[in-house]
Structures are given as structure tokens and as C-alpha cells.
Design brief:
By secondary structure, this protein is of the alpha+beta class. Helix content is about 25%, strand content about 35%. It has one domain: RRM (RNA recognition motif) domain (Alpha-Beta Plaits).
Length: about 90
């Protein structure tokens, strides 16, 4: 699979920003991708060395707007731990 299809976007949240101190970065990834594919995609896209990947499925929530009810989509989240001393420049502005 193409690395750009595996890593969909960076997840910039308060918890994700706090994880940067531990050299961990959070991404939304393709639901079919495994840990090894995620690791290779991050290494290719950002030019870093990934030590570990923790992946989890995030289930959508029920939402309602007035009388209409729906759900948000299910998605997969990956937390990548980088080698000591390496950073991803994309996250440094946050």
C-alpha cells in the first residue's frame, strides 16, 4: 500500500501534544493497515526511525442535531514512538 494512503492525517489534540514530551506522535491511519505497514509508512514519509507502534480502533459516537440522529465514522489511531533525539517537524508548530 502507498504510505500516503496508510497515514491519513496527524491527530493534534491536547493528549497528543502531551505525548510529544515522551517522543510519541499520534496519527489517523487506514483501518486495514497493520503495525508493520504503519511503521514503514511513517519512516518513509517523515524520514525518522520508529521504535514502536501502538494501534487501536476508535469507534464512532452517536450524535444528534435537533431531531436528527446519526453516528460519526469508526477510525483507527496509531501512536508511534520515535528513536531518542528524532522529531517530526510537522508537529513542532503546535
Amino acid at each position: 500500500m502507498d504510505p500516503h494512503r496508510i497515514v491519513r492525517r496527524a491527530v493534534v489534540t491536547e493528549k497528543g501534544t502531551a505525548l510529544k514530551a515522551q517522543n510519541k506522535y499520534v496519527f489517523e491511519v487506514d483501518r486495514r493497515a497493520g503495525k508493520i505497514e504503519i511503521k514503514r509508512a511513517i519512516e518513509v514519509l517523515f524520514g525518522v526511525t520508529v521504535i514502536a507502534v501502538h494501534a487501536m480502533n476508535v469507534y464512532g459516537k452517536a450524535k444528534r442535531v435537533g431531531r436528527f440522529q446519526g453516528r460519526t465514522s469508526d477510525w483507527k489511531k496509531a501512536i508511534a514512538t520515535l528513536k531518542e533525539g528524532q522529531t517530526i517537524e510537522f508537529f513542532e508548530g503546535t
